[in-house]
Amino acid sequence: MIWFINFERTSPLFQLSFSAFENVVEQRPEHFSAHSNLVILLDEVEYYDIAQTKALEALEIFGETKPDFYFHLANIYGKTGKFQQAEQYYLHAIKLGPRNPLYFANFGVLYHRWKKYDQAKKYYEEALRIDPNHKSAKINLKSLSWQRLIQHK
Predict the structure, then answer these.
(1) How far apart are CA 103 and CA 91, in angstroms?
(2) How far apart are CA 63 and CA 51, in angstroms?
(3) Largest CB tally within 10 Å, which of 10, 29, 101, 137?
């Protein structure tokens, strides 16, 4: 998997990457990583509508064999404030991939944004149960604890 950091929409590297992934997806529709990286790339530069469309297209191809696309859709819906839709997609991703701590950690982030702090805590803790060294779950759980402590003062 390729992770993109601080991609700019106007960057030549974005254009090159987008074209490369699009070409692979067109020529080899069964290529999971190309679909996944295309969705991640589009999400990174906040092309949420296009990322959503590409993730839904990938779901048509891979169905429930690849929970990642449910996860990607959950992330996109969460970032765009569609919390109830995001919740449903996280639940489905977790049902299909119950040992993936990232699914639980990001679900915690959704609930954190949604101000459903008890659920956020539950999902951060579950991510840490699966992977005690999961960095973002640790950081977010600590942040949540501090936030709740400050609110009760």
Answers:
(1) 9
(2) 17
(3) 137
pLDDT band of 153, cuts 50, 70, 90: low
Using alpha carbons, select from 102, 29, 3, 49 the residue that is nearest to residue 90: 102
Q: Are 34 and 25 in contact (CB under 8 A)?
A: yes
CA nearest neighbour of 103 among 124, 119, 82, 117: 124
Helix (H, G, I), strand (E, B) or coil at 2: coil
What is the residue type of 68? D
Residues 6+ apart with CB under 8 A from 144: 112, 117, 120, 121, 124
Contact in structure between 134 and 103 (CB atoms under 8 Å)? no
Rounded CA gap, 10 and 12, in Å?
6
In terms of Cβ atoms closer than 10 Å to its own Cβ (0-12, 13-18, 19+), residue 109 is buried
Residue 150: name the closest of 107, 125, 113, 117 by CA: 117
**Structure pTM?**
0.89
| Model confidence pLDDT, tens digit, residues 114-147 | 999 999 999 999 999 999 999 999 999 999 988 8
Confidence category of residue 80, pLDDT binned at 50, 70, 90: very high
